[in-house]
Amino acid sequence: MLVERLKNIKVIPIADESFGVRSMCTYIETPDVKILIDPGVSLGQRFALLPHMREYKAIKECRERISDFAEKSEVLTISHYHLDHYTPTFTDFTWNWSGIDVAREVYQDKIVLAKAIRSDINVGQRRRGWMLQKTAGSFMKRFGEADGKSFSFGDTRLSFSKPVFHGEESTPLGWVLILSVECEDEKVVHASDVQGPVLDSTREMILSEKPQIVCVGGPPLYLADFRVSRQSLKEGIENLSRLAGTIPVTVIEHHLLRDRGWREFSKSAFDAAEKAKHVALTAAEFLGEPNNFLEYRRRELYIEDPPDEGFIKWTKLSREKQRYEPPPL
To answer: CA 234 to CA 231: how far, in whole Å?
Structure first.
């Protein structure tokens, strides 16, 4: 399903859950600047099984897309330092398909505007952000902390929010930045891990921007009654429905789509969009492509499409060897 495009801002989803991976990497282009948002991709641990071959093929393809679009971009932005939102420099083919050469392809000679590492950040992300600057910083064009700041490129303005919670208030997962890209009278908002948003204050922050398109991460249904309460999930869907009923195009992605029942659970958001004659859809659907959900289907994929002998042999390697040797595809 293709939606009506904006005149001055081009939006292209690059890697998302609807492409079979964990990510919200998005390319935005205006007449003034080319931007790659959250240039990272990962696979998740589920069901005590390594990712299926199809998942590894998906992450390899998404990595290639990220590298291709990074090459044509002048600016890269990083909302926070979870591994599905930026490309690390360490080698890990098991979960991140990453390495120093992969990172160089992404960051070489780029302006990188990212979450600050000295305030509103948890210990794990502070360490990752510091390491990224220490390693990839040597081949970036420039690294700048973006919390609460705005940057102009010709007539295009990139505005970063003050840090907002990664879901629930005071969550140990830390904080993220919301990005607004404005050109002429058009605006696109990218709100990655706000999980709905769960918080009304985050919802109001997004609505106050009055965008024509919002790319937003939905609530983590797959963590219900485990790490996230049913009440928080309910609040996340209610706020997502408010966004879909107010903003012309809502691209719903990320944590929500890791659960088989995501569409039924979020029915109110799609109903709100339809009632307002708006559009709510996944990133794949935004591009007119079929959804390719893989993570929540992992167990059945191993049954329906058994891996070949080469892949099985790789799964028997030590965890350390798996990190440094990509699976045969």
So the answer is: 5
Structure tokens belonging to residue 240? 């997502």
pLDDT band at 1 (very low <50, low <70, confident <90, very high): very low
Strand pairing category for 213-217 and 175-176: unpaired
Paired strand residues for 280? 250
pLDDT at 225: 85
Burial readout 35-61 (b: 16 or more C-beta within 10 A, e: otherwise) = bbbbbbbbbbebeeebbbbbbbebbbe
Model confidence at 227, pLDDT cuts 50, 70, 90, reads: confident
128, 127, 175, 169: which is closest to 148 by C-alpha? 175
Using the predicted structure, report yes or no on whether residue 2 has a pLDDT greater than 60: no
Single pTM value for the model: 0.96
> Which two structure tokens, joined as six digits, stand for 283?
């990133």
Query: Which residue, chain included where needed, has tokens 């999930």?
Result: 233
Residue 137 CA to residue 193 CA, distance in Å, equals 25
